[in-house]
Design goal:
Blueprint: H1 6-31, H2 40-43, E1 46-49, H3 56-63, H4 71-80, E2 84-90, E3 96-102, H5 104-114, H6 129-141, E4 146-147, H7 148-153, H8 160-168, E5 176-181, E6 184-189, H9 191-207
Antiparallel strand pairs: 1-3, 2-3, 4-6, 5-6
């Protein structure tokens, strides 16, 4: 196989990370009793879009300034090498959306070039880095919370399915709650979420040192 260029590797790695996040998400739900018999050949299809709100994959590539007129040819080059599969899906308005799926060959390639080992399941209940980052933002926002549109579509947005929904549906109690204020939908940290943040802050600081999370004792709600 021809060596991938830097852009192609970044596309493939972004897809790999989304694929692994989906795998962890499903494993976590299964551990809580929410079993889904959808075969991996189906759930491994990752939405690129573009959609609104942006998909996690699109957001990663846009943040890296890799979304441009060459996007289609980059996916095609990866598909030609057998590292990904591509297909289109029409939205309700007839607009074609791109879905991509990393192949076993693609996952193997990324692990080889990056030295990534197969991901071990995270301890039950542990938040992923982006989930912790979203909780930190809501903790800082306090009771006023954040506009839902800003959380999902803003410059520093979060994926709804794998991040914000995870906070809302966290067990045994939600870490985030949604509410309406002046006819605008907002999100805020729940009482349990605030308690969780204060109790787990030190552990997550060690896990995700790149997330700027204020020390609970130094922050006034």
């Amino acid at each position: 196989m021809d060596e991938l260029n830097d852009r192609q590797r970044k596309y493939l790695q972004a897809l790999y990370e989304c694929d692994q996040e989906e795998e962890r998400y499903r494993s976590a739900r299964a551990s809580r009793g929410f079993y889904d018999r959808t075969p991996a050949s189906e759930w491994r299809w990752i939405m690129y879009g573009p959609t609104l709100p942006h998909s996690s994959l699109y957001s990663q590539l846009r943040k890296a300034k890799l979304v441009d007129q060459g996007t289609g040819s980059t996916w095609q080059a990866l598909e030609k090498r057998g590292l990904v599969k591509c297909r289109e899906q029409l939205d309700p308005y007839g607009i074609a959306l791109l879905l991509v799926q990393i192949t076993p060959k693609g996952r193997k390639y990324i692990r080889q070039v990056t030295g990534i080992e197969r991901t071990k399941p995270a301890p039950k209940g542990q938040l992923r880095e982006r989930q912790w980052a979203a909780l930190v933002r809501l903790y800082i926002a306090g009771e006023e919370g954040e506009l839902s549109d800003e959380m999902m579509l803003g410059e520093k947005s979060f994926d709804w399915m794998r991040t914000l929904l995870r906070l809302r549906d966290y067990k045994p109690y939600p870490l985030m709650e949604q509410f309406s204020n002046n006819n605008k939908y907002r999100m805020r940290i729940s009482a349990f979420g605030r308690e969780y943040y204060q109790r787990e802050w030190a552990r997550y600081r060690e896990l995700y040192p790149n997330i700027e999370a204020p020390e609970p004792s130094a922050h006034i709600i």
